[in-house]
Specification:
The complex is a heterodimer of chains A (145) and B (238). With 145 residues, chain A is of the alpha+beta class. Helix content of chain A is 50%, strand content 20%. Chain A has a four-stranded antiparallel beta sheet. In chain A, a hairpin with a 5-residue loop joins strand 2 and strand 3 (95-101). A six-stranded mixed beta sheet of chain B has the order 6-7-8-3-9-10, sandwiched between helices. Chain B has a four-stranded antiparallel beta sheet with strand order 2-1-4-5, with helices on one face. Classes of the chains: A alpha+beta (145), B alpha/beta (238).
Amino acid sequence: MIYNYEKYRDKREKVLGVRKRGISFGMMVLIVSGVIILGLGGLAVPRAIAYLTTRNLDDAIYKMADSKAWSQEVVTLIANQPGVTRALTDNHDTRLVVTFNRNETGPEKFKNIFLTRRITADLLNRMDHRNRMSILKKEAEFEAL
Amino acid sequence: MASVQVQVETVEHLIEVRGLQKHYQSGDTQVSAIKEMDFFIDDGEFVTIMGQSGSGKSTLLSIMGGLNHPSAGEMLVDTLDLYRLSSEQRADFRSEYIGIIFQSFQLIPYLTVRENVKMPMAITGISAKKQDEMAVAVLERVGLSDKMDRLPDQLSGGEQERVAIARAIVNNPPILLADEPTGNLDSETSEEIMKLLQELNRDGQTVIMVTHNPDTSRYSKRIITVRDGRCTVGACAA
């Protein structure tokens, strides 16, 4: 009789551990560890990314000398400068907040742009971007009470 | 990997026994239960291992079932060298390949027939519902569908033997080992049990039966005679 090696392959592989019956303890530990690591990663990674992307950012807050509204053209011009992350005006368009990378640009360069445009603007404040965001958040919470 | 070490590629039969020996110490005396045995069993055979009491046939059966380490030699089943497998792999081997019918039935007295039959499936990971379905199917096959919820001592000897057979085949093992399956039964019941084993063999199960009763050996296709720890020349297939 010719022996058929394939007939009991399934059983043979189960015995040899090639084919597992259910999930092994090791695999279960791996899955549980993976879930915990992913969960912790999900909490930690966004914070780390946020820290890395904002650590060199400062905010400069300007106001026109005569309290005029900022024109959209100037806002766009400032926003398009190298090293500037964004430029936004407040609700009344009287204050301009420029967020920039302090290693690449700064208020001196903005001042020159204002001068070429004959705009007299006062630098009201310059502060760390994250500090400002934190203050804004606290203010929003306070106003909500 | 373990599979490389424990698999033998040069086998031609489902079961191959090569140079098998089993010695043990009894006081100061060394007893040779199996002196030297070489034989094979093909898939789908019904083989009787015959021999007198103390000839080594039950020892041989226990070695074939992965229950008893030989002193020397190889016990190959489906290319697997049983005694090179780890104990965990050997437990899996018994679960996957072997069904054993004992002479004294070895049923658990406080469990019902159905629960006794479900016992071998306890470690297989099969769902409870599926286990129940399989137990019912196999009890129907051995003709005990109306006695599934009885306790073993509420059954006759022949019925208890049928429960033992049902328990042995419930995992659908390719090899059925029977140690004196009719030793405790009257001749009429013995014949019924032998016909049931024959039927299982016809359905593809390899049956290996140990007996000293020549009457029961007539149901098998081949006889291996064991005498004083050796297979007698000519009786072993070659």
